[in-house]
Amino acid sequence: MDRFIIRGGKPLHGEITIGGAKNAGLKLMVAGLLTGERLVLTNVPRIADIATMRDLLVQHGVAVEDLNGDGSSYSIGGEITNTEAPYDIVSKMRASILVLGPLLARCRKARVSLPGGCAIGTRPVDMHLKGLETLGAEIRLEGGYINATAPNGLIGDRVILPFASVGATENLLMAATLAKGRTEIVNAAREPEIGDLVACLNAMGAKITGSGSGTLVIDGVDSLHGAEHRIMPDRIECGTYACAAGITGGDLKLLGGRVDDLGAVVRALEETGVEVTQESYGMRVRRTGALRGIDIMTEPYPGFPTDMQAQFMAMLAVAEGASMITETIFENRFMHVPELNRMGARINVHGSSAIIRGVHALSGAPVMATDLRASFSLILAGLAAHGETTLSRVYHLDRGYEAVEKKLAACGANIERVKG
Ligand code: UD1
Known about the structure:
The protein is an alpha/beta fold and 420 residues long. The chain has two domains: 3-18 and 233-418, Enolpyruvate transferase domain (UDP-n-acetylglucosamine1-carboxyvinyl-transferase, Chain, Alpha-beta prism); 22-230, UDP-n-acetylglucosamine1-carboxyvinyl-transferase, Chain (Alpha-beta prism). 31% of the residues lie in helices and 25% in strands. The chain is built from 14 helices and 24 strands. The chain has helices spanning 22-31, 48-59, 87-90, 100-107, 126-134, 166-177, 192-203, 235-248, 263-272, 309-316, 336-342, 372-384, 395-398, 404-409; strands at residues 3-7, 13-17, 39-42, 63-66, 74-77, 84-85, 109-113, 138-142, 145-149, 158-160, 182-186, 207-209, 215-219, 227-230, 251-255, 275-279, 282-286, 295-297, 322-326, 346-350, 353-357, 366-368, 388-392, 414-418. The protein has a four-stranded mixed sheet. A hairpin with a 5-residue loop joins strand 12 and strand 13. Its EC number is 2.5.1.7.
């Protein structure tokens, strides 16, 4: 298992290219199941989760071609020969559940392993299943699998989500593109990645309106066709590197970064004393003064994203004064706290809130990654800490961040990957 060795204390200066969004790219690949024609995706991030999604699609029988041989563009297309998503892939990556709606819509049947729990919470899929039942699917849970059929095809209806779940919105959205008649998804999630998916589906011939409004209206069509789509920049990667500039007191040009996608994150950065500007090349982020403590609550978009919570916690650990972070999306997403405390942070967790008392400095230590975003919070802490930090279980990070050590080292960070 690879690990990172980080020697902290250097402000970061330079340019970092923001890659394609993981959370858009995965769903856009799944959208390839909705047509027999070729869907070409460009600006694909080179990360482990995308490779897992490729494996999943290939075992459904679909051809996935790496167009440039470097993992940056894929062509997806062909007939579906297998409607089962097996446990060994779904258990590796929860986003695999998103094949359920498209398989049902196109093949009228699907058998998908239940994803089960994961490190950051129980994460059930009840809203995905209830929504698909509203569209006429018959669903049975058996032997750890979701067996779903729609013998007469899916039929459009009004689905009211009790919570604006990102995954449930996407599953229903994709399924509804090929359903008979009109589907309305009320209380739909509004994350920018869903807007990207809508844009691609519409380019494939779907009829979707209401993107970003909280109510999606989908008029089903008989079939979708091929298209070419460029994946949007990863707002979470961009926000993460913005925190790297913030915690080290650096100045970074985040090429391709978009302030508009990051609303609440930009406001929080500014409140802590980090300056953010939109430039022609992307986002510029710098800090010259002290970091100030702030209070944050995670919420569905356009609120502060749960995927930026751990990175902000690292930054607030060295800010002046006290901060409070309340996590409302996932019930177990503070696993980075004990690790940050081992580096000298003063953080207490009370239920779904963490109180962070800023310390003057952190000190390097051996720490362990527990999930994707938590891993990066430990890198951030390591970049700001005195001495050496060893981060093990880097595979969590490789799931969702491309070339981390190269991007950071190019801006002056002392970080190396040790294979093993
Ligand atoms: C997606 C993102 C993830 C992000 C999250 C919230 C991807 C691949 N992942 O995950 O990075 O942190 O949105 O912005 O895009 N829930 C239920 N029942 C359901 C569905 C969800 O109870 O049927 C709960 C979950 O357990 C969780 C909350 O709703 O507590 C949010 O989940 P959801 O918005 O669905 O997140 P994901 O799509 O899994």
